[in-house]
Amino acid sequence: MNNNENLLYKFFKDSLTFSVIAMFVMLATNANLADASLQDLYDEVVSQASNEANYDSEREKRFQASAQMRARMLADVNASIAAEERKKEILKKQFDNNEDQLAELSTILDRRIGDLGELFGVFRQTTDDTQALLFDSLVTLEYPERREEIDVLAESSEVPTIPQLQDLWRLLMHEINYSGEISRFESEVVAPQGTTYDAEVTRVGTFNLVTDDNYLGYLSEGIKATELPRQPVGYARASAKDLSSANTGDEAITFAIDPSRGALLGLLVQSPSLLERIQQGKTVGYLIILVGIIGLILILERWMRLSRISKRINNQLKDMDHFVDDNPLGQIMGMYYENEYLQDLEVISRKLETIVITAVADIKRGLPLIKVFAAVAPLMGLLGTVSGMIETFQAITLFGTGDPKLMAGGISTALITTVLGLCVAIPLLLSHSFLNGRALELSKVIGEQAAGMMAKKAEDIAKSKRSKESS
Fold it and tell me: Is residue 229 a part of any domain in this protein?
């Protein structure tokens, strides 16, 4: 007996048992009915058994039909599996054949390429170098489409074609041509605050970018021009201004170019300005500058005073017959003429000496103070040097010598104060020598004129005495 027959037997047995139980239930139910007869009960049982037999027969037929359908489905699945297995074998053989054919074709291709393999290597190397060159070139800011073209060539993994070789040659010639030109174009500029604005940018070859009097940097990642947060000193910005405002056909313009393409400009803008250097001198530096300013004021005042006295004395020397008391020589002449008939030579000498001493003192007034300032300024610079070195050694004691930046402040103070002291002392010393020479020259003129008048007065008195004795 197979599996289907076992299942059928079990199903029939269960159905029969269910029918018998149902019959007894119905009998028990019908026995409770007072009016039912045994014949009716028998007929009812026979009818129910017949119905149950018909129902079980239908269920058996449906089960057999379902079992046959599943058997057919299983057969179809097995047939599909067998077909797929045969297809797999066919595809495997085809794949193996394709692998062999691909290896043969690769061997033939390598043999036929020959020198083209070396050409591919040279093309790849040149393309990579050109890509790096165009990536950092300022010309790309004006022609950003070049970046996409060189990227396409660099990503190619096949033997280059003639159009690709021509594109690479064209990009190289484009870079060579525009690297020697000065060009103007509109571009977006990023300000130090992060904002952007449109401006007319002047490109000097592949070296510098300027707009108005500002130097610009180049952000190669975003292909944007950036305004430097710190600009170089005045003469460089003035040259940038001249270049930005120049018209085509103008005469040659002097421009401060950076041949290192930004390295020297970066160092230049990092160097401190004059005001920042003065601030590095701290308190001692400010005191030295104050001494220099006071000394300069004294020098200007003395120079103007001596120039005015010298001019008036020269005018007086041109007209000795008439005196003007706005200068020492005129005052001496006035005193001399007022005492022209006085015969006491000692009295006249005393009066002339008083005027000469007063005039010379007025001429030399302030010069000793200038000399003192000239001597004090380098001493103050030395004081700043010592203070800066003390600060440096304190930094070394606390932090060691690992970071030179910690010592830079003290060293800057020491050097700047020394420089300031010398810059103040040298002009003051030279100015004192010059003014002292002018003062000595004027004093000599006044002394000579006073001595001459005294000699003339002594001669007149001697003549007068001889005339009296002879008479």
Answer: yes
Task: Report the helix count and the strand count for the chain, using DSSP H and E.
Answer: 14, 5
Q: Could you read off the pLDDT of 76-111 as tens digits, one per residue? A: 888 889 889 999 999 999 999 999 899 888 888 777
182 phi, psi to nearest 5 deg: -105, 120
> Domain check: are 156 and 223 in the same one?
yes
DSSP-derived 3-state class of residue 340: coil
Query: Rounded distance, CA 94 to CA 89, Å?
Result: 9
Question: CA 87, CA 101: separation in Å to the nearest integer?
Answer: 21
Residue numbers of the domain that contains 395: 280-470
With b meaning 16 or more CB within 10 Å and e meaning fewer, what string describes 15-53?
beeebeeebeeeeeeeeeeeeeeeeeeeeebeeeeeebe
The amino acid that residue 240 corresponds to is: A
Q: How far apart are CA 175 and CA 329, in angstroms?
A: 79
Least trusted range by pLDDT, from 158-162, 263-267, 361-365:
263-267
Residues 189 and 162 in one domain: yes
Question: What mean pLDDT value characterizes the chain?
Answer: 78
330 and 359 assigned to the same domain = yes
Phi/psi of residue 200, nearest 5 degrees: -85, 115
pLDDT, tens digit, for every residue of 133-147? 888 888 888 888 888
Q: Are residues 59 and 170 in the same domain?
A: no
What's at 57, amino acid-wise? S
In the predicted model, what is the mean pLDDT of residues 101-130? 80
Residue 36, sorted as left (phi over 0), alpha (psi -120 to 50) or beta, turns out to be beta
Give the total number of structural domains in the chain. 3
Tokens of 402: 């690992």
156 and 64 within one domain: no
142 contacts 203 by C-beta, under 8 angstroms: yes
Inter-residue contact 446 to 328 (CB < 8 Å): yes
